[in-house]
Amino acid sequence: MSGLMIRNVSVHYGGIAAVQDVSLEVSPGERVCVIGANGAGKSSMLKAIAGLVPSSGTIEFSGNALNAIPSWTRVGQGLCLVPEGRGVFARLTVAENLQMGSYHRRAAASELDDVYDHFPRLFERRTQPAGTLSGGEQQMLAIGRALMAKPKLLMLDEPSMGLAPLMVEKIFAVIGDIAKSGVTLLLVEQNARLALGLCDRAYVMETGRVVLTDSAAHCLSNPLVRSAYLGD
Amino acid sequence: METFLQQLVNGLTLGSIYALVALGYTMVYGILELINFAHGEVVMVGALVALSVIGALSHLGLPGPVVLLLGLTVAAPVCMALGFVIERVAYRPLRRAPKLAPLITAIGLSISLQQIAALIWGRNYISFPAVLSIDSYNLGGVIITSLQLTIMGLAALIMAGLLMLVQKTSLGRAMRATAQNPAVAQLMGVNTDQIISFTFVIGSALAAVAGVMVAAYYSVGNYTMGFMLGLKAFTAAVLGGIGHLKGAMLGGLLLGVVEALAAGYMGDFTGGVFGSNYKDVFAFLVLIAVLVFHPNGLLGSRAREKV
Predict the structure, then answer these.
(1) What is the pLDDT of residues A165-204, one digit of tens each?
(2) How far, in Å, CA of B218 to CA of B207, rounded?
(3) Could B180 and A89 be called an inter-chain contact, meaning their C-beta atoms sit closer than 8 Å?
(4) Using a CB-CB distance cutoff of 8 angstroms, which residues of chain B are in contact with residue A99?
(5) Alpha-carbon distance A153 to nearest alpha carbon in chain B (angstroms)
(6) B171 to chain A nearest CA, in Å?
């Protein structure tokens, strides 16, 4: 069984190329991050993997080609994306949002309790519309909802965006726990220090292309990465 | 007082029908932010199909309610198929087009359906065969018929069922999720195209029921009947807050009552200058008033979304 493999993937919006000829691999159980500035094409690449935007090139997961199958069947393959901006259903309750996570399969009632164990806050607010939650709580909900999908590969798009430092710490602790439980991780982050601290390996994207790939430890000591993304 | 109660009964009957049609508008709007202006024609097709079936069966000597039910049994699938085709042909190809484009196809489709219906059923009024023996009950001067009771009861049942479906089932959750954020719904494994088709089909089934009710209540139907009915049901949907299920129900009932009361009192209040034939004006006056003072409709309030 192999993990995620993408080869020469490009994404175009109208005439503009957001992702150009990107190749990337994530082995099962691995934690990989993609770092880069705003507009580097990181989100577009995740959307291409999830099938939300059309792309050229090859995307394979567990040996199955994903290009030809519609976006809504990809979660059934074990692929789950927590989108940028969290994408909670604002007028559905917290509990309904979580139930949507397991829409594609038959989930046991105990699985909902497992998520509530991870995030006691969500249990307290389970009957509230998700739109009434704070930004951090919405991020918890988005991650909890993804857990309900029982993914093999969890993709997170900017989970730290717009959150207070304390909340970011909490969220990343949970992401770390999820990875430890055996879920493969593909993390897109602007906060390079956080991402590199959590992951095994990193890709650096600039203007739609992968410009560097190395172990997280090497990236942390790479002078180019340090000056461009770590503020040194 | 008797006039008031009488018109209340009449208004609630009419309002039940408006509500069923309004639900079709509001469900589609909720999921696509699109006004399906061809929806009134689906009601018309439902009514005319049922009238044909009932006409064909009328001399077999079957009991009235059975004939009516058979009419509905044919009309409902026809309307559901029509709703499915309407979405596929007129709206799906324009999913990413500017909002004005599907509005124009909707109007075009509406005119086409009317003309096709005129070809099939002719341009004359088709009268409802006398298959129903309608009982009247006199409750302290207020007359209520078995047909009115059936219409109100059936409409209430269907509306309760729809609310259950949308609010309590996994399918309903998927419908609401698709309405709020189709891209994320897809990430959760929802086949959003299928959900959209389903929404049109359900709305069209309600339209079929409403069509049969109108045909039975007014005892006539013709190819233009969907226009005014559709317009009023749309008014009812906006009145209640478009995109809001309970709003459509409330708006429908309210509009029916306002119209019936206007019909009952118009002559008295204006000294006979305006008669009950001006009742339609009231429906639209109500719409204008709501749009001026409460643009989101009675129950419609946008939930603020945090980033």
Answers:
(1) 999 999 999 999 999 999 999 999 988 999 999 999 999 9
(2) 16
(3) yes
(4) 170, 173
(5) 13
(6) 9
Which DSSP category does B89 fall into? I
Å from B167 to nearest chain A CA?
A: 10
Neighboring chain B residues of A157 at a CB cutoff of 8 Å = none
Interchain contact B305–A (C-beta under 8 A): yes
Residue-level pLDDT at B281? 83
Could you tell me the CA-to-CA distances from A129 to A140, A181, B175, B298 in Å, in that order? 14, 30, 16, 20
The domain segmentation of chain B, as residue ranges, is 2-128+140-293
For the domain made up of B2-128+140-293, the CATH class stated in words is mainly alpha
User: What angle do the packed helices B279-293 and B245-269 form, to 10 degrees?
Assistant: 130
pLDDT tens digit sequence for B142-182? 999 999 999 999 999 999 999 999 999 999 999 999 999 99
Q: Measured between CB atoms, does A164 come within 8 Å of chain B?
A: no
* Domain A4-229, CATH homologous superfamily name and number: P-loop containing nucleotide triphosphate hydrolases (3.40.50.300)
Convert A136-146 to b/e letters by CB count within 10 Å (16 or more is b).
bbbbbbbbbbb
The answer to whether B111 contacts chain A (CB < 8 Å) is no
What per-residue confidence (pLDDT) applies to B305? 36
Q: Give the residue extent of every domain in chain A.
A: 4-229
Q: Is A72 on the interface with B (CB under 8 A)?
A: yes
pLDDT one-digit tens code per residue, B158-169: 999 999 999 999
- What would the 3-class secondary structure string for B115-183 be? HHHHHHHCCCCEECCCCCCCCEEEECCEEEEHHHHHHHHHHHHHHHHHHHHHHHCHHHHHHHHHHHCHH
B261-298 pLDDT, tens per residue? Answer: 888 887 777 777 777 777 788 778 888 888 888 888 88
- Nearest CB to A50; choose among B185, B187, B305: B187
Testing the interface with B: which of A47, A52, A86, A89 to mutate, by most B Cβ within 10 A?
A: A89
Which pair of tokens denotes residue B213?
């009710």
User: Would you list the DSSP string of A49-116?
Assistant: HHTSS--EEEEEETTEE-TTS-HHHHGGGTEEEE-TT----TTSBHHHHHHHHTTTS---HHHHHHHH
User: From CA B109, how far away is CA B122, in angstroms rounded?
Assistant: 19
CA distance B185 to chain A (A): 8
Q: How far apart are CA A110 and CA A124, in angstroms?
A: 17
Q: Determine, for residues B176 and A92 on separate chains, whether the beta-carbon distance falls below 8 Å.
A: yes
Residue A85 at interface with chain B, using a CB cutoff of 8 Å: yes
- What is the DSSP pairing of strand A201-206 with strand A184-189? unpaired
* Nearest residue, CB atoms, B305 vs list A50, A131, A149: A131
Sign of the Cα torsion B111, B116, B120, B122 reads: positive
Whole-number Cα distances in Å, A24 to A69, A201, B134, B212: 20, 11, 74, 60
Note whether A104 contacts B189, CB cutoff 8 Å. Answer: yes
C-alpha B151: how far from chain center: 13
